[in-house]
């Protein structure tokens, strides 16, 4: 019990060591646009999470269509420079994305797409707390669907994103 209390106190104390450690952003990633939150875990490490609306083109047989639904995005970031400040500058890290979409035009076709990979990017924080970021990465692609989808033999998923938000 003493270890639990001491560990909890240490965790609460250590999170107060970093000023302006939170960001709320609008994230626009390939296939997923939504609300994103980033939190610093240390001088160079942060976690990013996003939930949003997904819209992807699909093709069933010879019919082109569009599937819509919900998407999730998670990323761990390692910032390369301590000089730039907390959650600023170039970053690298792993990501995971999951899209659950339905196509009502094709009789309730349900498709899940997931990707895990590596991403890099740059994030700038202006003096007034406005944040602007861009990222680029590549990961594996896993598709589960009610029917066989024609995705052109692609087994990778590009990760391309732009974010704008506010640091507090």
Note the main attributes of this structure.
8-stranded antiparallel barrel; mainly beta; Porin; about 170 residues; 9 strands
Structural summary, described in words:
This protein is mostly beta strands and 168 residues long. It has a single domain, classed as Porin (Beta Barrel), CATH 2.40.160.20. The chain is 8% helix and 65% strand. The protein is built from one helix and nine strands, in the order αβββββββββ. It has one helix at residues 2-15; strands spanning 22-29, 32-40, 45-60, 63-79, 89-103, 109-125, 130-140, 142-145, 156-167. Residues 8-17 have low confidence and may be disordered.
**CATH architecture classification:** Beta Barrel
Structural class: mainly beta
Per DSSP, the total helix count is 1
Nearest-integer average pLDDT: 83
Main β-sheet, spatial strand arrangement: 1-2-3-4-5-6-7-9
Instruction: Work out the count of structural domains.
Output: 1
Write down the Rg: 19 Å
Largest sheet: 8 strands, antiparallel, barrel
- H/E topology pattern: HEEEEEEEEE
Uncertain ranges: 8-17
Q: Terminal Cα separation, in Å?
A: 34 Å
- Count the E strands: 9
Write the CATH fold name: Porin
Beta-strand proportion: over 45%
């Amino acid at each position: 019990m003493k270890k639990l209390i001491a560990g909890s106190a240490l965790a609460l104390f250590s999170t107060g060591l970093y000023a302006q450690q939170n960001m709320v952003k609008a994230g626009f990633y390939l296939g997923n646009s939504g609300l994103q939150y980033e939190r610093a875990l240390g001088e160079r490490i942060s976690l990013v999470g996003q939930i949003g609306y997904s819209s992807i083109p699909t093709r069933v047989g010879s019919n082109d269509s569009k599937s819509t639904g919900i998407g999730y995005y998670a990323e761990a970031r390692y910032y390369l420079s301590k000089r730039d400040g907390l959650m600023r500058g170039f970053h690298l890290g792993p990501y995971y994305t999951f899209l659950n979409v339905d196509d009502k035009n094709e009789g309730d076709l349900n498709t899940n797409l997931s990707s895990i990979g590596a991403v890099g990017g740059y994030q700038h924080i202006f003096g007034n707390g406005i944040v602007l970021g861009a990222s680029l990465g590549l990961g594996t692609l896993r598709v589960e669907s009610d029917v066989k989808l024609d995705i052109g033999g692609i087994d990778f998923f590009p990760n391309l994103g732009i974010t704008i938000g506010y640091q507090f």
